[in-house]
Design a protein that fits this description.
Helix content: under 10%
Low-confidence stretches: 1-43, 594-598, 761-786
Distance between the termini: 39 Å
CATH topology of one domain: lipopolysaccharide transport protein A fold
Strand content: over 45%
Shape: globular
Number of helices: 5
CATH superfamily of one domain: Lipopolysaccharide (LPS) transport protein A like domain
């Protein structure tokens, strides 16, 4: 159950709030009371307008009791000081409330209202059919017999033999039920012999509560207290059951502890037949400095581990907050007991990147024209041995922005002071200071734009290293570097009307050209990989002003980049096709790559292409490639074609990266030859489609064509009804990649079964868990360029 969701039986209790409302005022006879045909026609139309209708909260009156009452009936009979009786298709309306009955009577002097015979009640969120409603206007006591209700704004319906309201504050439902299944479907339901609630209480008490499947009780509790509003309540939540080949049978029984309005905790014992008992917990808090959570996992004795004496555990602290509109806080710190924790145990602890568990934190202060951030970044390696990744301990960043200066200029200053630390003996540690003032002059019209930019990059290093290591002998203990840069980028937008295959289209042509100059400065004394890596070059990357992600390596440039995009829009301005092409032309040796012999490459870069195609919103294509004409080889390529219509989709995708391109991007990786003979060439296929009725199939398969081995495959069979779902799945994935010279890859297989109740807000699917930490979900790569 959601910690803030309404109780699944709360709506039954709330019926008593509205039962007597129709009789709070003495209605006057309708003007149409003597016109039988008009009364009948109005009755039918009024009820047809409200049956099954959901009225949004903003469309309801603020106080329905102050709204006028409208009554229609076939006839009305009054006896002075005794009773007033309406009969024959009686309909009473007040604001968002509608009550219909065969007969409605106000008894005097008892001041009791009774509605009998085919009683119908509707208030915009729920409708009720009942045999009889009786209410005492003096004592506020009321009863509703044989009530059948259904919610109109969300799934949910049920029955109650009797709903009783005693006075202003106490309600009781006798033999009440609740389910999200449609009428006639009794797949599952909750029931209780008695449900009681005080009007001002956020909770309801259920006696002899049962969970039934196909009218068979499967869970019984003599007493259960549940929240009936947004309030939270200490108690057990819905259990979770699943089975997998790795961990065996799994049972989770979460317990929720409502500590305070701004603190709570969920404690979840998890039994795994193959591993043992694990205790998981999550503590959440909300303070003036923001919100956060503390998450922990503890497995005292892993029966599958080689060393049974060592406990296995994981921990995460995450926090995100804002204070006084200027201060921002963000923390994400995680740690686990051993490097194989995530490969052995299903866990969502923390954030992982490049086989490292991240441990980050930052505090920022922001004003209109400037901001400052104190940042630390540590990690826990998830591989054996010493990690070569750098810790940021710490970094102080200051940025200043000043747009709309005289003559239309924009100015900004990026700066930071960083400390990099590493445990590897062959890697240096360093202090780095970087200043980067930039002056920009933008100008644009609806059809033309030009942006000029001048930048100066100054960096100072204080490096600590072992000078006896050959690879580090070229480095300097202290060094600095100043690199000026000029960038001019201009683009046009042209369009015309055209005709293709008898259809009207608008074609655009968007050429662009960029000149980039970055001074060639000696940088051999600086270690190039503190936090810097080579960026991927595709069509959109051709127009960047840098080739590396950070400032440890600044690539020289004296070059023009030219490119163009053409697009086709249909008569509804939907983009149906685009094609982009671009290339860099070098004016001198600056920016070119040198081969192993030290000879320069041609004075142009590889050509980059990007294209998207959308045919009638059911057939899609996306593709991109980079081709080196001088070597007559493909550097990398990706493509995906998809058929999608309704709940049916099929996607075939492919990606290729040459071995030379990998080595160029990862120059320090000398293990590439052990894992691939000819780069990356991978083919994937994903599909999902309905089989029959609520039965559907989903499958994925990914294969490495270069090494001729499966990367991952999974298939699942799902059945979904209106109120429950069951899924059977099988997954097999490459756990560790093979060495092409010695060993085969290691695979892991998992079988899963899950069952879910649908329509219960906050109720997690029973047994719903990722079949593997490596599973690739279906995505639509057709909406973002890069």
């Amino acid at each position: 159950m959601s910690l803030t969701s309404r109780s699944l039986l709360a709506t039954m209790i709330s019926l008593a709030l509205y039962g007597p409302a129709m009789a709070y005022e003495n209605p006057a006879p309708s003007e149409d009371v003597n016109d039988e045909s008009a009364a009948v026609n109005d009755t039918k139309s009024e009820l047809e307008l409200v049956r099954g209708v959901c009225i949004a909260p903003q469309d309801m009156p603020e106080d329905p009791n102050n709204e006028p009452i409208k009554v229609t009936a076939d006839q009305a009979e009054a006896k002075t000081n005794q009773k007033v009786t309406y009969s024959g298709d009686v309909v009473l309306q007040q604001g968002n409330r509608t009550v219909a009955a065969d007969v409605a009577t106000l008894h005097q002097p008892e001041n009791v209202v009774t509605a009998e015979g085919n009683v119908y009640f509707h208030d915009g969120t729920i409708e009720v059919y009942s045999d009889r409603i009786q209410s005492n206007l003096d004592t506020e006591a009321s009863e509703m017999d044989n009530a059948v209700y259904s919610m109109t704004c969300e799934p949910g319906r049920g029955e109650a033999k009797r709903i009783t309201k005693n006075g202003l504050s106490y309600y009781r439902l006798k033999d009440g039920t609740y389910t999200t299944c449609p009428p006639g479907d009794r797949s599952w339901q909750f029931s209780a012999t008695s449900i009681e609630r005080e009007n001002d209480s956020p909770f309801a008490d259920l006696y002899n509560a049962r969970f039934e499947v196909a009218d068979v009780p499967v869970l019984y509790l003599p007493y259960l207290r549940v929240p009936v509003g947004k309030e939270r309540l200490t108690g057990f939540l819905y259990p979770s059951v699943s089975y997998g080949s790795r961990d065996g049978f799994e049972l989770e029984t979460p317990f929720y502890w409502n500590i305070a309005p701004n603190y709570d905790m969920t404690i979840t014992p998890k039994y795994m037949s193959n591993r043992g008992l694990q205790l998981n917990s999550e503590f959440r808090y909300l303070t003036e400095l923001g919100s956060g959570s503390l998450t922990g996992e503890y497995l005292g004795n892993d029966q599958e581990a080689t060393d049974d004496d060592d406990a296995r555990w994981g921990f995460n602290w995450s926090h995100n907050g804002q204070y006084n509109e200027h201060w921002l806080f963000e923390i994400d710190y995680s740690k686990v007991s051993d490097v194989t924790y995530f490969s052995d145990i299903d866990s969502s602890i923390g954030e992982r990147e490049d086989n490292n568990l991240l441990q980050t934190g930052e505090i920022s202060y922001r004003e209109q024209y400037w901001d400052s951030t104190l940042r630390v970044r540590d990690f826990q390696p998830l591989t054996l041995g010493v990690s070569s990744n750098y810790r940021l301990m710490p970094q102080v960043e200051f940025n200043y922005y000043r747009p709309d200066m005289p003559y239309g200029l924009d100015f900004n200053l990026l700066s930071h002071i960083s400390r990099f630390e590493n445990d590897a003996d062959d890697k240096p540690s360093a202090d780095r200071v970087h200043l980067e003032p930039t002056l920009t002059l933008p100008y644009s019209t609806p059809w033309w734009s030009i942006t000029s930019e001048a930048k100066l990059m100054y960096t100072y290093y204080n490096q600590e290293f072992d000078s006896s290591i050959d690879e580090l002998q070229e480095l300097a203990e202290t060094t600095s570097r100043t690199v000026p840069s000029i960038r001019i980028h201009s683009g046009l937008y042209l369009e015309r009307d055209t005709l293709l295959w008898g259809e009207d289209y608008t074609q655009s042509l968007e050429p662009q050209v960029q000149y980039l100059y970055v001074k060639d400065v000696e940088q051999q004394e600086i270690f190039s990989s503190y936090d810097t890596t080579l960026l991927q070059t595709d069509y959109y990357g051709l127009f960047r002003d840098k080739r590396y992600s950070s400032v440890d390596r600044i690539a020289a440039a004296n070059q023009f980049t030219v490119g163009a995009t053409t697009r086709y829009f249909d008569s509804d301005f939907v983009e149906r096709f685009n094609l982009s092409f671009g290339q860099i032309f070098y004016l001198n040796e600056s920016g070119r790559n040198l081969d192993e012999a030290g000879e320069s490459t041609p004075n142009y870069s590889a050509s980059a292409f990007e294209s998207d195609f959308n045919y009638d919103d059911w057939l899609f294509f996306h593709g991109g490639l980079q081709y080196d004409a001088s070597k007559k080889e493909m550097q990398f390529a990706n493509a995906a074609v998809e058929y999608r219509e309704g709940s049916l989709f099929s996607q075939l995708n492919y990606r290729y990266v040459s071995k030379d391109y990998i080595k160029q991007s990862l120059p320090d990786n000398d293990q590439i030859d052990n894992y691939t003979e000819d780069g990356i060439s991978q083919l994937g296929f994903s599909t999902g489609f309905p089989v029959y009725g609520g039965l559907s199939l989903r499958g994925d398969y990914y294969h490495d064509l270069t090494e001729n081995q499966m990367l991952e495959g999974q298939i699942s069979l799902n059945y979904r009804s209106a109120c429950w779902m069951i899924s059977l799945g099988y997954n097999e994935y490459l756990k560790s990649r093979s060495n092409v010279n010695t060993q085969a890859g290691e695979y892991e297989q998992n079988f899963s079964i899950s069952f879910s109740l649908l329509g219960l807000a906050g109720v997690a699917p029973i047994g719903a868990s990722t079949t593997s930490g490596n599973a690739i979900g279906y995505g639509r790569p057709f909406y973002l360029n890069n």
